[in-house]
Amino acid sequence: MIRKLFLCFILLTFSGFGQSVEHSVVFVGDTQRNSILELFRENNEGIPAKIYDKIAHEDPCCVVHNGDMVFWGASKNRWNEFDSDAAPLINKHIPIYPVLGNHEYMGRNTTALNNTFIRFPFLKTSTWYYKIVDSTAIVFLNSNDGDLSKEQALEQLTWYKATMHAFEMNSTVAYIITVCHHPPFTNSTLVGRSSYILNNFVPVFVKSPKTIVFFSGHCHSYEHFVYQGKAFIVSGGGGGPRQNVKPGHNGRDMPADLYQGANFRPFNYCKYFMKNGKPFIQVIGMSKETGTFQTIDEISLR
Q1: What is the 3-state secondary structure (H, E, C) of the chain?
Q2: How, if at all, do strands 175-179 and 211-216 pair?
């Protein structure tokens, strides 16, 4: 493993990845359709397909999925639904780069992961990886600590530290984004924050001079936090039944949610791009009642 990490460091430090044209990247999460077990929850039939279609019209260079692409990972029928909903992206050959959510593990793990690997074969090598878009490095993590062995958890953390250091030494990388499914911060009244991510990966993230935003999902809403000068965004409003967020719900040590919207928020995705030469995020919300899309938040990253 040490040899592999050393080769990774050499590759990231001395390879030139920068390009002259800056492209947009869309971040979206929790696009799973409702299950028959969720009869008591909000019915969002057709919402994920509408969101994927709108994203396709944005024509991003790629889409980053914050996890929970399907409700039941071991179900072929659920994955067929994903194929249908995401068809606008697939037909336009817009790449999708996901992190694994807890629902990707639902059912027998081997079967569930095989369904994922069929569509994303690069994940079979490793479920933590990176992609570079122009001058921005995007680092993908597996936050399902209950499904990782102790050896895998240690390997991922060691890899993350080495990869972050390599990007800091790479002059062609100006900005670093980290993505995982489970949020280190959330005010969701249904799901909690991840102590695994908060205690292991957030300290590495906040210390890096190039990191600008940490994306996650799991909470089916939109939230915007700032912690130690870094942005933390929860974007899990891709079509799964929405969750209420209540400020301060998960503890007094939670940073404040900077988004001033209601506790029950629109479906959403985030568009990352350069504006006036600086990294910028435009948050697009969708009204369930009207089906219209509009900007609900804008974040200039430093």
Answers
A1: CHHHHHHHHHHHHHCCCCCCCCCCEEEECCCCCCCHHHCCCCCCCCHHHHHHHHHHHHCCCEEEECCCCCCCCCCHHHHHHHHHHCHHHHHCCCCEEECCCHHHHCCCHHHHHHHHHHHCHHHHCCCCEEEEECCEEEEECCCCHHHCCHHHHHHHHHHHHHHHHHHHHCCCCCEEEEECCCCCCCCECCCCCCHHHHHHCHHHHHHCCCEEEEEECCCCCEEEEEECCEEEEEECCCCCCCCCECCCCCCCCCCCECCCCCCCCCEEEEEEEEECCEEEEEEEEECCCCCCEEEEEEEECC
A2: parallel
Rounded Cα distance, 63 and 57, in Å? 12
pTM for the model: 0.92
Contact indicator for 47, 267 with CB cutoff of 8 Å: yes
Q: pLDDT digit of tens for each residue in the chain (302 aa)? A: 443 443 343 334 333 333 334 689 999 999 999 877 766 788 898 999 999 999 999 999 999 999 999 999 999 999 999 999 999 999 999 999 999 999 999 999 999 999 999 999 999 999 999 999 999 999 999 999 999 999 999 999 999 999 999 999 999 999 999 999 999 999 999 999 999 999 999 999 999 999 999 999 999 999 999 999 999 999 999 999 999 999 888 877 899 999 989 999 999 999 999 999 999 999 999 999 999 999 999 999 97
Q: What angle do CA 152, 155, 160 make, to 5 degrees?
A: 125
Tallying the residues shown for the chain, one arrives at: 302
Backbone angles phi, psi at 239, to 5 degrees: 140, -20
The structure tokens listed for 115 are 């369904």
Largest CA distance in the chain: 55
CATH number given to 2-6+22-300: 3.60.21.10
